[in-house]
Amino acid sequence: MLDALKFFLFVILLLVTIMLNQHVNSKRSAELDLDLLWQIQDTKGVYVVPNQTVPSGVYTALEQSMVIGSLLEEYNDVNTSWVGETDWIYRTNLSCLAEDYRYVLLTFHGVDTFASVYLGDRLLGQCENMFVRYSFDVKELCDGTTHELRLEFRSPVAEAKKRSVGRKLPIVPTCPPDGYHGQCHVNLIRKMQASFAWDWGLAAPSMGIWKPVRLEYYSSALIRDVTVGITESTDAGDDRWTVSVGVHLETGLASARISGILTFKIIGVPLTDDAQQTLAVTNATDEGGELLVEQRLTVRKDAVERWWPNGYGRQTLYSLYVRWEDAAVNGVKLPHPDTMIAEKVIRIGFRTVLLSQERTADGLMFYFKVNGVPMFAKGSNWIPSSVLPERSYDANYVKFLLYAARDAHMNMLRVWGGGLYESDHFYRLADELGILIWHDLMFACSMYPTDEEFLRTVREEVRQNVRRIQHHPSVAVWATNNENEVALRQNWYKTAANYSAYYAGYVELYVRTVRPAVEANDPWRTVLLSSPSNGDQSAKGDYVAENPQDPHYGDVHYYNYFLDGWNAVQYRGGRFVSEYGFQSYPAYTSWPEARSYGPAEFTKLVNHRQHSPLASVPILTMIGYNLPVPGDPSAPGYWPELIYLSQLSQAMIVKTETEVYRARRLAHGTMGALYWQLNDVWIAPSWSSIEYGGTFKLLHVWLRDIFAPVHLVAFVNERRRLELVAVRDTLGPDDDLWDVEVRIHRYGSFRPVDRLRYEAVRVPPNTVAPVAEWDVYEHLAQRGLHPADHLVLVSAYRHAASPGQQQQPALADNFALLDKLKNIRPEQRVQPAVTVSVVAAVCSDRSNLTSVSLEVSVSAPALFVYLQLTPENSTLKQCQFSRNGFLQFQPVRTVQLTCVDPGCRNKIQARDITVRTVNELLVR
After folding, report:
1. Does 853 lie in the same domain as 795?
2. Above 70 in pLDDT, residue 27?
3. Second label for 512, Cα 20 to 30 Å away, from 140, 157, 538, 923?
């Protein structure tokens, strides 16, 4: 009884520890965050910024001290370029006592990027890779004396340039296009590749301590990482999960013998054999002070719930607790026994994820099977949430973005290879929200060096980050790089003349270095060599496919800038489309300069921030195909109109493309659609659906319908027939029965001119079902109706079991255009009176969230109603409309507006909301 009580109290204390450390998942025997006050200065002492805490970066510190203006405003990306070209020093005072601890380590979890580290007069070592954790033995210097801790940073711009000198084979591309206003040779250094500028982002070659700095005190072994592989038995009669646990122990920075006990618990879950709970360890760490200890735990399947992606089930997580206790703890009385004990808690999920690539008649399939269920991947591509690394880990903003993805029915995000290995917080949230992660390693759009020093730091980078990240159930697959295979094969960077040499470097880096390093630390997941690639077909061949974009294999990246993107016929899709998209401009009110700039000045600024090599020509071309184009660029209303039309065009293009991919799940084997891109790093033209700061573009509002688990797709196909396809991602044992209604409307009338109904359409679970193909153009011709005057609205309802049963709300609504909007004939071009009324408003003091119920009334059908708050409401943050850019073919529609309103100071009124429609441009 006493033993049971002790165990019960132990579990209670453990659970309290877990709750208190839910954002710090590791409890170490003695660990001190050095969130001290640091001084930052340039090496000449011209700029001195005192009292800075870490994590930190030079740009952030200079902004906060008002040495420079905001990096993200006006032309400050160019005006502040000197910051990244200057050497800087971080310094603080540090006093520590080693006492009788065996190990005292100074550990930097992230240094950006080149720094010499000094404690007092002693050079501890060099940092050269922002993705690597660096530890230094400081025991001898921890004598109670105060020493200056100093990091002398060298300009990454200068270091990159220095490494480019004297190379027989240039590492290409050497510089970004001139329009990026960027820096050169970023591919020669291990730094966020986008920090020297990208087609969606500014150059900000940052420096600083971008992750925590800690003093680690212990006397036995430290648990640095816990890796996990969870497999499900497929043997008949075996109803167990196997949890393969790898415990990575450290003993300082050198080999040492250790003896002790490892204890394993999955909180609230009994193991099938109590003997698995402990493991005696007597061994020596390697020359770097590391030792991997492996243990296998087994759990009955009926003791746990499965973890599912968003939309398929619950995201059940369990806490795996690992404890190291040195044998000396119970042998003698110690002054600090806790320094010989180490603990770590991670969260795990019981699920299987298989990237299935079975052979078909015309190639290989490529799709994710989760818990044995084929999954259509719906989602986006993730770039860092800030161009400044120390800001990219902002927990609240990362949470906002991931919740926005979840709420748009996404079940996958691709962490893109030109950014960062994300924060632990990012992966924890992905676990909680059911968002699977396709994870690139941080290599993108470039050739790379393969000298031994470069490969050495890459091995360490991959080893550390895969170990840190891989236990998360959300991580689905690794890819060693972004677009480097296709770049090499298609001669993007003029490599053809030296193809053999560049090919050899490609194989050396990814096939012989990166992939083995990933597999050594995570043998349970597929490692793709590139994205796009032919998947297994590339890996079994010479690693560089003749056509890495072959739609019959692997994944593809598809961008179409000059064919009419509103036309569904343009899209075929591949097995898995991991990138596609189109640009738009951020809302006019999102530009901080908008109110002070005239049209000419604003045009110059937009052009400066437009980094696409094609500039804004594709945006204007696509608008010109389908919409009335604003007239005079010098007119005050030109930019607000153009921005509206660009967002509408982007939403229509991504909607059309995504819906074709979903509809072609059976016909073409398409099983994934990840558009480019979810988020942004500044206010600029880009492919994002969410502006920097959190404002949704029209596209993101539309995604709630585009990615809805139950959806009705309608488009005009290559046979010029209206194609209707029922889409159902939900699981269930039974088929659904739908009634589908098709209504033909004139643009100027609320009343449909014709209706068509398909009864009792059988829709199986987790697939698509064709509803009908209808020659709508022939039907209109027979009625004497012109296609340019009409559009089709479609709705799906649950089938009525009896004729008199009241019709339930629609399961899904959609529309299909029968001609270009600019071709609507004059008699159907009406300009409705649009009125917005505030019906109710409430603000929570607790959450600082304002919710406003609006009624939008129209006197005639309104096309793509666009609601926007006026600039006077700039203190409101992350304002989102429940619907926007919508077709209103009913007199009244209700829309919800939510905003973060600190202190609940604002009272939104009807005059605070502006309205635009396509109608007003058509009647001009």
Report:
1. no
2. no
3. 157
- Cα 666 to Cα 337, 365, 662, 685, 812: the distances in Å are 62, 11, 9, 35, 21
Question: How much is the average pLDDT of 795-816?
Answer: 89
d(CA 112, CA 389): 8
- Confidence band of 448 (pLDDT split at 50, 70, 90): very high
Distances in whole angstroms, Cα of residue 585 to Cα of each of 260, 682, 821, 881, 924: 60, 11, 21, 18, 23
Distances (CA, A) of 303 to 12, 238, 241, 273: 20, 14, 10, 13
Give the per-residue pLDDT at 486: 98
Which of 579, 641, 723, 741 is the catalytic position? Answer: 579
Rounded-to-integer distance, Cα 362 and Cα 365, Å: 9
Cα(623)–Cα(618) distance, rounded to whole angstroms? 8
Are residues 252 and 327 in contact, defined by beta-carbon separation less than 8 angstroms?
Answer: no
In this prediction, residues 679-687 reach a mean pLDDT of 98
Task: Please give the biggest Cα pair distance in the chain.
Answer: 98
DSSP-assigned letter for residue 142: -
Q: What's the CA gap between 555 and 414, in Å, rounded?
A: 12
- Looking at the fold, whether 67 and 182 belong to one and the same domain comes out as yes
pLDDT above 80 (res 875): no
What is the dihedral sign for C-alpha 585, 591, 595, 598?
negative
The per-residue pLDDT for range 533-576, each reduced to its tens digit, is: 999 998 888 999 999 999 999 999 999 999 999 999 999 889 99
DSSP 572-639: ---SEEEEE---BPPPGGG-TTTTT--HHHHHHHHHHH---TTTTHHHHHHHHHHSPPP--TTSTTHH
Name the residue among 110, 639, 695, 729 with its Cα closest to residue 378. 729
What is the percent of the chain with per-residue pLDDT over 70, rounded to a whole number? 97
Residues 322 and 407 grouped into a single domain? no
CB atoms within 10 A of CB 383: 28
DSSP string, 633-677: TTSTTHHHHHHHHHHHHHHHHHHHHHHHHHHTTTTT---EEEES-
Cβ pair 117, 125 in contact under 8 A: yes
Is residue 703 domain-shared with residue 715, that is, in the same domain? no
Catalytic annotation present for 691: no
Model confidence at 29, pLDDT cuts 50, 70, 90, reads: low
Q: What is the CATH number of the domain that holds 417?
A: 3.20.20.80
Tell me, yes or no, if 579 is annotated catalytic.
yes
What's the structural domain count of the chain? 5
> What is the pTM for the complete model shown?
0.95
Q: What is the mean pLDDT of residues 602-614?
A: 97
Together in a domain, 275 and 159: no
3-state SS class at 803:
coil
Query: Do 386 and 420 lie in a common domain?
Result: yes
Catalytic residue among 216, 483, 657, 691: 483
Give yes or no: residues 846 and 860 share one domain. Answer: yes
Q: What range defines the domain where residue 852 resides?
A: 834-923
